[in-house]
Design a protein that fits this description.
Length: 249
Amino acid sequence: MIEFEQIAPHAHRITVMAEFRQADAQALAGFVKEQQAKGGGGNLLIDLTAMAGFSWSAVAEEMVHFPLLLKWAYGLDRIAIVSDEEWVRTSARLESALLPGISYQVYDDDEAETARAWVLEQVENPHTGAFHEIDVSDPKIAAYELSGRLDREESEKGVAMVRAKFDLEGCTRLLLVIRNWHGFDLDRLLSGEVLNGKLEIARKMERYAIVGGPKWIRTYAEFTSNFFSGEIRGFELEDQAKAIAWLSE
Protein backbone atom coordinates (compact mmCIF):
# COMPACT_ATOMS: atom_id res chain seq x y z
CA MET A 1 0.00 0.00 0.00
CA ILE A 2 1.25 3.45 -0.88
CA GLU A 3 0.04 6.86 0.28
CA PHE A 4 0.86 10.38 -0.91
CA GLU A 5 0.59 13.47 1.24
CA GLN A 6 1.52 17.09 0.66
CA ILE A 7 3.17 18.24 3.88
CA ALA A 8 4.16 21.73 2.68
CA PRO A 9 3.70 23.81 -0.47
CA HIS A 10 7.10 22.57 -1.65
CA ALA A 11 7.21 19.09 -0.08
CA HIS A 12 5.45 15.73 -0.24
CA ARG A 13 5.62 12.53 1.78
CA ILE A 14 5.30 9.08 0.26
CA THR A 15 4.51 6.30 2.74
CA VAL A 16 4.78 2.63 1.83
CA MET A 17 3.07 0.11 4.10
CA ALA A 18 3.08 -3.68 3.98
CA GLU A 19 4.20 -5.10 0.62
CA PHE A 20 4.91 -2.78 -2.29
CA ARG A 21 2.88 -4.25 -5.16
CA GLN A 22 2.37 -3.61 -8.85
CA ALA A 23 -0.68 -1.44 -8.18
CA ASP A 24 1.46 0.70 -5.86
CA ALA A 25 4.10 1.12 -8.58
CA GLN A 26 1.36 2.21 -10.97
CA ALA A 27 0.05 4.68 -8.40
CA LEU A 28 3.58 6.04 -7.95
CA ALA A 29 3.93 6.57 -11.69
CA GLY A 30 0.60 8.40 -11.74
CA PHE A 31 1.69 10.65 -8.88
CA VAL A 32 4.97 11.46 -10.63
CA LYS A 33 3.17 12.32 -13.87
CA GLU A 34 0.92 14.67 -11.93
CA GLN A 35 3.89 16.38 -10.26
CA GLN A 36 5.73 16.72 -13.55
CA ALA A 37 2.67 18.33 -15.10
CA LYS A 38 2.82 20.91 -12.30
CA GLY A 39 6.45 21.69 -13.06
CA GLY A 40 8.20 19.17 -10.78
CA GLY A 41 10.79 20.19 -8.21
CA GLY A 42 10.37 20.46 -4.47
CA ASN A 43 11.38 18.11 -1.66
CA LEU A 44 10.40 14.53 -0.91
CA LEU A 45 10.17 12.45 2.27
CA ILE A 46 9.91 8.69 1.66
CA ASP A 47 8.76 6.73 4.71
CA LEU A 48 9.52 3.01 4.41
CA THR A 49 9.38 2.09 8.10
CA ALA A 50 6.18 0.05 7.64
CA MET A 51 7.19 -1.58 4.36
CA ALA A 52 7.28 -5.38 4.45
CA GLY A 53 9.02 -6.08 1.16
CA PHE A 54 8.05 -5.82 -2.49
CA SER A 55 6.73 -7.99 -5.31
CA TRP A 56 8.70 -8.63 -8.48
CA SER A 57 5.76 -7.41 -10.52
CA ALA A 58 6.16 -4.04 -8.74
CA VAL A 59 9.85 -3.99 -9.71
CA ALA A 60 8.95 -4.76 -13.33
CA GLU A 61 6.36 -1.97 -13.29
CA GLU A 62 8.91 0.48 -11.91
CA MET A 63 11.37 -0.44 -14.64
CA VAL A 64 8.73 0.40 -17.26
CA HIS A 65 8.43 3.89 -15.79
CA PHE A 66 12.13 4.26 -14.85
CA PRO A 67 12.91 7.14 -17.29
CA LEU A 68 9.95 9.09 -15.91
CA LEU A 69 10.92 8.42 -12.29
CA LEU A 70 14.55 9.31 -12.94
CA LYS A 71 13.68 12.59 -14.67
CA TRP A 72 11.42 13.54 -11.75
CA ALA A 73 14.09 12.64 -9.17
CA TYR A 74 16.67 14.79 -10.95
CA GLY A 75 14.34 17.76 -10.56
CA LEU A 76 13.91 17.37 -6.79
CA ASP A 77 15.87 19.50 -4.34
CA ARG A 78 15.87 17.34 -1.20
CA ILE A 79 15.13 13.62 -0.89
CA ALA A 80 15.01 11.89 2.50
CA ILE A 81 14.47 8.16 2.94
CA VAL A 82 13.48 6.78 6.35
CA SER A 83 13.64 3.05 7.08
CA ASP A 84 14.24 0.73 10.01
CA GLU A 85 15.80 -1.89 7.70
CA GLU A 86 19.56 -1.77 7.21
CA TRP A 87 19.38 -3.30 3.71
CA VAL A 88 17.00 -0.55 2.59
CA ARG A 89 19.27 2.21 3.93
CA THR A 90 22.35 0.60 2.38
CA SER A 91 20.61 0.19 -0.97
CA ALA A 92 19.50 3.82 -0.92
CA ARG A 93 23.03 5.06 -0.21
CA LEU A 94 24.42 2.87 -2.98
CA GLU A 95 21.78 4.10 -5.42
CA SER A 96 22.54 7.69 -4.49
CA ALA A 97 26.24 7.11 -5.17
CA LEU A 98 25.55 5.50 -8.54
CA LEU A 99 23.19 8.20 -9.83
CA PRO A 100 25.19 11.39 -10.50
CA GLY A 101 23.31 14.52 -9.59
CA ILE A 102 20.84 12.80 -7.25
CA SER A 103 21.61 12.85 -3.54
CA TYR A 104 19.56 11.00 -0.94
CA GLN A 105 19.80 11.57 2.77
CA VAL A 106 19.10 8.30 4.55
CA TYR A 107 17.70 8.02 8.08
CA ASP A 108 16.92 5.32 10.62
CA ASP A 109 13.39 5.24 12.02
CA ASP A 110 14.44 7.03 15.22
CA GLU A 111 15.59 9.95 13.04
CA ALA A 112 12.20 10.45 11.37
CA GLU A 113 11.62 13.88 12.90
CA THR A 114 15.06 15.04 11.78
CA ALA A 115 14.32 13.86 8.24
CA ARG A 116 10.98 15.67 8.19
CA ALA A 117 12.51 18.91 9.49
CA TRP A 118 15.16 18.79 6.76
CA VAL A 119 12.62 18.12 4.01
CA LEU A 120 10.50 20.99 5.28
CA GLU A 121 13.65 23.17 5.21
CA GLN A 122 13.31 23.96 8.89
CA VAL A 123 17.00 23.06 9.25
CA GLU A 124 19.89 23.43 6.82
CA ASN A 125 21.97 20.42 7.85
CA PRO A 126 20.42 17.03 7.02
CA HIS A 127 21.59 15.39 10.25
CA THR A 128 21.58 16.73 13.79
CA GLY A 129 24.83 17.09 15.69
CA ALA A 130 26.30 13.74 16.60
CA PHE A 131 28.79 14.78 19.29
CA HIS A 132 27.71 15.99 22.71
CA GLU A 133 29.93 16.55 25.72
CA ILE A 134 28.88 14.78 28.92
CA ASP A 135 29.93 15.48 32.50
CA VAL A 136 31.62 12.68 34.46
CA SER A 137 32.94 14.95 37.25
CA ASP A 138 36.58 14.09 36.63
CA PRO A 139 38.86 16.78 35.12
CA LYS A 140 41.27 14.24 33.66
CA ILE A 141 38.51 12.64 31.52
CA ALA A 142 37.19 14.15 28.29
CA ALA A 143 33.75 12.53 27.88
CA TYR A 144 31.43 12.60 24.88
CA GLU A 145 28.34 10.90 23.54
CA LEU A 146 27.92 10.01 19.88
CA SER A 147 24.42 9.50 18.53
CA GLY A 148 23.27 9.31 14.92
CA ARG A 149 25.31 9.40 11.73
CA LEU A 150 28.87 10.65 11.70
CA ASP A 151 29.63 12.86 8.70
CA ARG A 152 32.76 14.84 7.89
CA GLU A 153 31.54 18.01 9.61
CA GLU A 154 30.66 16.19 12.83
CA SER A 155 33.96 14.26 12.73
CA GLU A 156 35.94 17.48 12.48
CA LYS A 157 33.83 19.06 15.20
CA GLY A 158 34.31 16.07 17.51
CA VAL A 159 38.08 15.95 17.02
CA ALA A 160 38.32 19.69 17.69
CA MET A 161 36.34 19.30 20.92
CA VAL A 162 38.62 16.53 22.18
CA ARG A 163 41.78 18.42 21.23
CA ALA A 164 40.58 21.50 23.11
CA LYS A 165 39.84 19.36 26.18
CA PHE A 166 43.24 17.66 26.01
CA ASP A 167 44.90 21.08 25.94
CA LEU A 168 43.75 21.48 29.56
CA GLU A 169 46.33 20.47 32.14
CA GLY A 170 45.87 16.92 33.40
CA CYS A 171 43.26 15.83 30.83
CA THR A 172 44.67 12.69 29.20
CA ARG A 173 41.80 10.21 29.19
CA LEU A 174 38.89 9.86 26.79
CA LEU A 175 35.40 8.38 27.11
CA LEU A 176 33.18 7.89 24.06
CA VAL A 177 29.64 6.59 24.58
CA ILE A 178 27.98 5.47 21.33
CA ARG A 179 24.18 5.41 21.17
CA ASN A 180 21.88 4.89 18.17
CA TRP A 181 24.77 4.35 15.77
CA HIS A 182 23.82 5.03 12.14
CA GLY A 183 27.21 4.67 10.47
CA PHE A 184 29.51 7.27 8.94
CA ASP A 185 30.08 9.06 5.65
CA LEU A 186 33.17 7.93 3.74
CA ASP A 187 34.34 11.45 2.97
CA ARG A 188 35.28 11.91 6.63
CA LEU A 189 38.23 9.63 5.90
CA LEU A 190 39.56 12.26 3.49
CA SER A 191 39.71 15.01 6.10
CA GLY A 192 43.27 16.00 7.00
CA GLU A 193 41.88 17.84 10.00
CA VAL A 194 40.41 14.61 11.36
CA LEU A 195 43.51 12.54 10.68
CA ASN A 196 45.99 15.03 12.12
CA GLY A 197 43.74 15.70 15.10
CA LYS A 198 43.46 12.00 15.91
CA LEU A 199 47.24 11.59 15.78
CA GLU A 200 47.71 14.53 18.15
CA ILE A 201 45.13 13.12 20.55
CA ALA A 202 46.72 9.67 20.42
CA ARG A 203 50.11 11.11 21.43
CA LYS A 204 48.62 12.70 24.55
CA MET A 205 46.10 10.01 25.48
CA GLU A 206 46.78 7.61 28.34
CA ARG A 207 43.47 5.71 28.33
CA TYR A 208 40.49 5.54 25.99
CA ALA A 209 37.19 3.80 26.77
CA ILE A 210 34.59 3.15 24.07
CA VAL A 211 31.16 2.31 25.44
CA GLY A 212 28.42 0.82 23.26
CA GLY A 213 28.18 0.91 19.50
CA PRO A 214 28.79 -2.04 17.15
CA LYS A 215 31.20 -4.63 18.49
CA TRP A 216 33.49 -4.24 15.46
CA ILE A 217 34.21 -0.62 16.43
CA ARG A 218 35.37 -1.61 19.90
CA THR A 219 37.38 -4.54 18.53
CA TYR A 220 39.09 -2.34 15.94
CA ALA A 221 39.86 0.36 18.52
CA GLU A 222 41.42 -2.18 20.89
CA PHE A 223 43.55 -3.47 18.00
CA THR A 224 44.86 0.03 17.20
CA SER A 225 46.12 0.36 20.78
CA ASN A 226 49.03 -1.84 19.65
CA PHE A 227 50.36 1.15 17.71
CA PHE A 228 50.08 3.79 20.47
CA SER A 229 51.29 4.14 24.01
CA GLY A 230 47.77 4.69 25.36
CA GLU A 231 45.51 1.85 26.48
CA ILE A 232 42.14 1.33 24.78
CA ARG A 233 39.26 -0.78 26.07
CA GLY A 234 35.73 -1.46 24.83
CA PHE A 235 32.69 -1.77 27.10
CA GLU A 236 29.06 -2.71 26.58
CA LEU A 237 26.57 0.16 26.87
CA GLU A 238 25.33 -1.05 30.26
CA ASP A 239 28.91 -0.97 31.58
CA GLN A 240 29.41 2.78 31.30
CA ALA A 241 30.02 3.10 35.04
CA LYS A 242 32.77 0.46 34.82
CA ALA A 243 34.39 2.37 31.95
CA ILE A 244 34.40 5.59 33.96
CA ALA A 245 35.85 3.78 36.96
CA TRP A 246 38.65 2.37 34.79
CA LEU A 247 39.43 5.79 33.36
CA SER A 248 39.49 7.30 36.84
CA GLU A 249 42.07 4.88 38.24
